[in-house]
Amino acid sequence: MKLDLYLVTDAALCGARGVVETVRQAVDGGVTIVQLRDKLSTPAEQLTELEALAAAIDGRADLVINDRLDVAVAARERGIPVAGVHLGQGDDAVTRARAELGPDAIVGLTANTAAHREAVARLAPGTVDYLGVGVIHPTTTKPDHPAPLGVSGFREFAAATALPCVAIGGVQLADIAQLRAAGAAGVAIVSALCAAPDPAAAARTLMTEWQEAAK
């Protein structure tokens, strides 16, 4: 599991190019993990999309699905290489996800409050692999988002948990060095990749910034 550059898909932002081609290009540019986030499609449609995404990624990045544990299980039963799920606070329990997907799957969880962090700390070790923490800045890709944490709030959150924390929500190129210094294990990007005229070039720029921030 490499969380460095984490693409969360948005079909509307991908536009006519489509999600699959956007993901293909972004992975060409260095994206290390892809989350299919699609709130509108049916489970059958999501299965078809996962199959197409897996073919486009071709083993070069991990593929997870947002929310739909049932779809992740069905995909794996079909032999589609889906690595796991990312769940929100209102989705299937992470304990159920771990039980159904097994010890080698990726199980991520959205968390942005001390109460969320404390609840995760009470789980058996290995239940959750990473936390998606945000939002960092206000973002239109998730209109119902909680109050922004900013970089300082992210730093405080990440320092209080042993789990890897991925920064998400309004993250831009200018934030990456600060977020890595604040303890981010990765940065999750939506608009800056999905809406980019050239997703491969955008991913290369973002990954270079991420790598430079470690020096």
Automatic annotation (TrEMBL):
It catalyses: 2-(2-carboxy-4-methylthiazol-5-yl)ethyl phosphate + 4-amino-2-methyl-5-(diphosphooxymethyl)pyrimidine + 2 H(+) = thiamine phosphate + CO2 + diphosphate; 4-methyl-5-(2-phosphooxyethyl)-thiazole + 4-amino-2-methyl-5-(diphosphooxymethyl)pyrimidine + H(+) = thiamine phosphate + diphosphate; 2-[(2R,5Z)-2-carboxy-4-methylthiazol-5(2H)-ylidene]ethyl phosphate + 4-amino-2-methyl-5-(diphosphooxymethyl)pyrimidine + 2 H(+) = thiamine phosphate + CO2 + diphosphate. CDD domains: TMP_TenI. Residues 5-193 form the Thiamine phosphate synthase/TenI domain. Pathway: Cofactor biosynthesis; thiamine diphosphate biosynthesis; thiamine phosphate from 4-amino-2-methyl-5-diphosphomethylpyrimidine and 4-methyl-5-(2-phosphoethyl)-thiazole: step 1/1. Its EC number is 2.5.1.3. 4-amino-2-methyl-5-(diphosphooxymethyl)pyrimidine binds at residues 35-39, 66, 110, 142. SUPFAM superfamilies: Thiamin phosphate synthase. GO terms for molecular function: thiamine-phosphate diphosphorylase activity. Its cofactor is Mg(2+). Pfam families: TMP-TENI. 2-[(2R,5Z)-2-carboxy-4-methylthiazol-5(2H)-ylidene]ethyl phosphate binds at residues 139-141, 170, 190-191. Binds 1 Mg(2+) ion per subunit. Keywords: Magnesium, Metal-binding, Thiamine biosynthesis, Transferase. Mg(2+) binds at residues 67, 91. InterPro entries: Aldolase_TIM, ThiamineP_synth_sf, ThiamineP_synth_TenI, TMP_synthase. HAMAP family: TMP_synthase (MF_00097). Belongs to the thiamine-phosphate synthase family. Condenses 4-methyl-5-(beta-hydroxyethyl)thiazole monophosphate (THZ-P) and 2-methyl-4-amino-5-hydroxymethyl pyrimidine pyrophosphate (HMP-PP) to form thiamine monophosphate (TMP). This is Thiamine-phosphate synthase. It comes from Leucobacter albus. The lineage of its organism: Bacteria, Bacillati, Actinomycetota, Actinomycetes, Micrococcales.
